[in-house]
Amino acid sequence: MSAVELRITNPLNNTIFNQGETEVELTLEGEVVEPIPEELIGTQLYYRWYSNLFAARQDRYSLNEEALSHPLQPYQATLPLRVGTHSITLAASDRSNELEAANESEHGGVTGGTAGNGKCLLHVFFAHIISPVPNSTPATLRQSNSILEAEAPREWSREITSSETTSSEIAYKLNPDYHQINQIRYRWRFQPIDEPPNRIAVDLVPSLGLDELDRDRFERNIPEAQSEEDFRLFTTGELTLANPNREMPLVRYTGGLPNVLVPGSNYTLTLRVEGIDDPSTFHTSNPITVQII
To answer: Which of 16, 33, 52, 289 lies 20 to 30 Å (CA to CA) from residue 164?
Structure first.
């Protein structure tokens, strides 16, 4: 088998979406890196695009139903944008049929994905609070023990295999492959409203809770306020995956709320999904009024 070297020219690696878009039209373009192997001169190659943002169907798992005859041929892909870090892949094969390309190719190549010099990652910053549920009256949160839930990346966790547990129940753990490329962090902000006065804003940034997933990286670059008199930051507790089999996976924080929140008073709660390495990139949810009890 002879390999052809490919390069994705659009979108660029580390393209960011942070305006709360739920769908995007992307122009996908690539190219063959010269020179090509002599034995491939005159060989017709076919090109397909892939992304983990595209849900595989029974008839195909590539974005383009018909194979492209040239990588420079732009392909317009409409992709649903889900929160998290995602990948785009370009593959070439001497077979136009997708199944034959996967199993019977004699010549081809691949680029993009999540690793290597040709990787192509998209980062979607989208903050969507699931719980507490917004209501006409303030939602109540217990200071001693509360639940905060938000939309999660599909790959945030993976199923624990039978070799990792003796239990027959289905369970999940954080997915180390995903968290090596993950660029999003969850920040819950409590902003005081109404009475009493002289309360401070509070940020709660739950950690991942597993050392092997590079907790230091997850917790670095958390922007502090300039004045500690009107702002406090808490990096406590852990985020776990809730309802992994649902159409919309959730991350859940379960635990106590910062003790500087004043019981019996109201706050505006927002969720900010921000960059781990660049917190200036973020998306903020719609506010919810909550009361601490």
So the answer is: 52
pLDDT level of residue 229 (50, 70, 90 thresholds):
very low
- pLDDT tens-digit profile of 256-284? 898 889 999 999 999 999 998 888 899 99
Of 90, 115, 79, residue with least CA distance to 29: 90
Instruction: Name the pLDDT band for 113 (thresholds 50, 70, 90).
Output: very high
Looking at the chain, the whole-number percentage of residues with pLDDT higher than 70 is: 79
Q: What is the 3-state secondary structure (H, E, C) of the chain?
A: CEECCEEEEECCCCEEECCCCCEEEEEEEEEECCCCCHHHCCCCCEEEEEECCCCCCCCCCCCCCCCECCCCCCEEEEEECCCEEEEEEEEEECCCCHHHHHHCCCEEEEEECCCCCCCCEEEECCCCEEECCCCCCCEEECCCCEEEEEECCHHHEEECCHHHCCCCCCCEEECHHHHCCCCEEEEEEEEECCCCCCCCEEEECCECCCHHHCHHHHHCCCCCCCCCCCEEEECCCEEEEECCCCCCCEEEEEECCCCCCCCCCEEEEEEEEEECCCCCCEEECCCEEEEEC
Domain annotation for the chain: domains and CATH numbers: 2-124 (2.60.40.10), 129-292 (2.60.40)
| Phi, psi (rounded to 5 degrees) for 176 | -65, -30
Compute the average pLDDT of residues 37-60: 80
Q: What is the pLDDT of residue 240?
A: 66
Q: Is the pLDDT of residue 120 over 90?
A: yes
